[in-house]
Specification:
The protein is of the alpha/beta class and 489 residues long. The protein folds into two domains: 379 residues, ANL, N-terminal domain (Rossmann fold, 3-Layer(aba) Sandwich); 96 residues, ANL, C-terminal domain (GMP Synthetase, Chain A, domain 3, 2-Layer Sandwich), CATH 3.30.300. Helices cover 30% and strands 27% of the residues. Helix 3 links the parallel strand 3 and strand 4. Bound molecules: methylmalonyl-coenzyme A (MCA) and adenosine monophosphate (AMP). The site of methylmalonyl-coenzyme A has 25 residues, from helix 7, helix 9, strand 13 and helix 14.
């Protein structure tokens, strides 16, 4: 029997008291209403094809993705700020049958050729005949649920195919680690086109039968209000968000009191600085819990709700997740000594199936059934994982977004007046890392703003360089390869 992804949706029509499922600003749906709207939309989706979702931070995105999941149709969430180049690649690669978007949303050029289905979130607009219909039968657990695009060191982003089995495995492992229940009300302001905001942040509460409050846009005041006034018990955020809370919490006793009341504050997508962790702990008496995951693996480790949130660590492997550290020569590190550094490799039901249309990349990512994460770590004597770095210097994590240097370099080289380009990440107290462009330019008149704008338009605004540095020539080795380490040093 395939696992039922959302039991609360199937039970909803029989609930005596409506249970809130989703709220975005002043609009929301209870479980019965969500079953009705998403169920009706599910019946319009073409079996066996993929559908794109214009993933604005809105109720429509949540309904669209739930509808696709009910229909057993894989959803491809699109960053609504994607640049032209990125969007054209994703649409060409994933070949969606149609795009789901909120009514009235203006969609950019590359989407114009696709049929568009407007997502209606009004449960009263569903005809009685459709409203009474049963939800579609649950698909097989290996059926692709989502295709999430993620950047690599070079080339365009790859589509990570995530089966329903991986979603169930990761969300149920988090239920165990965080004692996550239907009484939890989650608040966050994460984007809905990545694993963190969409799978953990929307599908997580729905699988548990709990409630999501989405802020639309991150602000400390929004977080305070959700925790203090709207009964939120859990918060998810990237380290940049906790950094911004840490900056305000000293001077804002109401914010400190609200954070202190939360059942669990969870950070992920990048490393939370020990300094920010300590500032929040000093002001609230509460420690932020870190968990570690990846688009390809969903969640691998976490500090447990009943465990110790030790700054700089991401806790223990989750239930069902196999984790090992491997040295460069392939030796598996057995020692839990807090010192021996190896690459994290993982296996388990939480893993993706493949990179879409990229059997070469899929094969290259595995060592047998172990997935190579590219993250370097040590394990402490009690098994806690401490991430110490990343194998690839050409991957940048900025604001929790993974950004490939190669993709930006290609776009920089298209700009008139740019002769050579290299991209690196450098430490940034707010973003974790900021994107730095090293350019050899034709002449000093090059307009930095216009170059940043070009990257923001072709790729996405978070990929634009925040700093420009100019050189007469890029440092290269005998093979002509740019020596990034020399640049950073
Ligand atoms: C600025 N903007 C521009 C330009 N400059 N737009 C066009 N052209 C330009 N040249 C606009 C931006 O679009 C944005 O608009 C605003 O100015 C501010 O931009 P930015 O500085 O980039 O944003 P920020 O305020 O610094 O954002 C910080 C953030 C964001 C909110 C923390 O980085 C964020 O949401 N991060 C979450 C990433 C995430 O979810 N990662 C999960 C993937 P506007 O203000 O209108 O937006 S990792 C994952 O899923 C794994 C599994 C895991 O472990 O979780
Ligand atoms: P993405 O490919 O966008 O899903 O990002 C996955 C990467 O984010 C991982 O390979 C890690 O490098 C990083 N990451 C996620 N969570 C954490 C964390 N808690 N601490 C440090 N790095 C993290």
């Amino acid at each position: 029997m395939p696992a039922v992804l959302f039991p609360a949706l199937r039970d909803a029509p029989h609930e005596a008291v409506p249970k809130p499922a989703l709220r975005f600003g002043d609009r929301g749906l209870d479980y019965a209403q969500l079953a009705r709207t998403a169920g009706a939309l599910a019946r319009e989706l073409p079996p066996g094809r993929r559908v794109a979702v214009w993933a604005t931070p809105s109720l429509e995105t949540a309904v669209a993705v739930v509808a696709a999941l009910l229909a057993g149709v894989a959803a491809v969430p699109l960053n609504p700020k994607s640049g032209e180049r990125e969007l054209a690649h994703i649409l060409g690669d994933s070949d969606p049958a149609l795009v789901l978007a909120a009514p009235g949303e203006t969609l950019p050029g590359p989407l114009a050729a696709l049929p568009r289905v407007a997502v209606d979130t009004d449960p009263d607009a569903v005809p009685e005949t459709a409203a009474g219909a049963r939800l579609p039968a649950e698909p097989d657990e290996e059926t692709p649920a989502l295709v999430v695009y993620t950047s690599g060191t070079t080339g365009p982003p790859k589509g990570v195919v995530l089966p329903r089995r991986a979603l169930v495995a990761t969300l149920d492992a988090l239920e165990d680690a965080w004692q996550w229940t239907d009484r939890d009300v989650l608040v966050h302001a994460l984007p809905l086109f990545h694993v963190h905001g969409l799978i953990l942040g929307v599908l997580g509460p729905l699988r548990r039968g709990g409630t999501l409050l989405h802020l639309g846009r991150f602000s400390a005041e929004g977080v305070r209000r959700a925790l203090e006034e709207d009964g939120a018990t859990l918060m998810f955020g990237v380290p940049t968000m906790y950094h911004r809370l840490a900056r305000e919490v000293d001077a804002d006793p109401a914010l400190a009191a609200a954070l202190a009341k939360a059942r669990l504050l969870v950070s992920g997508s990048a490393a939370l600085s020990v300094h920010d962790q300590e500032r929040i702990a000093a002001a609230t008496g509460r420690r932020v819990v870190e968990r570690y995951g990846m688009s390809e693996t969903l969640m691998n480790t976490s500090v447990r709700a009943d465990g110790e949130a030790r700054p700089g660590t991401v806790g223990l492997p989750l239930a069902g997740v196999g984790l090992r550290l491997v040295e460069d020569d392939g030796t598996v590190i057995e020692a839990l000594d807090g010192e021996s550094i190896g690459e994290i490799q993982v296996r388990g039901p939480n893993l993706f199936t493949e990179y879409l249309n990229r059997p070469d990349a899929t094969a290259g990512a595995f060592d047998g059934d172990w997935f190579r994460t590219g993250d370097m770590a040590v394990r402490e004597p009690d098994g806690y994982v401490r991430i110490v770095g990343r194998r690839a210097t050409d991957l940048i994590k900025s604001g929790g977004y993974k950004i490939g240097a190669g993709e930006i370099e290609e776009v920089l080289l298209e700009f008139p007046g740019v002769r050579e380009a290299a991209v690196t990440g450098e430490p940034d107290p707010d973003l974790g890392e900021r994107v730095v462009a090293w350019l050899v330019r034709e002449d000093a008149a090059l307009d930095e703003e216009a170059v940043a704008e070009h990257v923001a338009r072709r790729l996405a605004p978070h990929k634009r360089p925040r700093v420009f540095r100019y050189l007469d020539a890029l440092p290269r080795n005998d093979m002509g390869k740019i020596m990034k380490r020399a640049l950073r040093d």
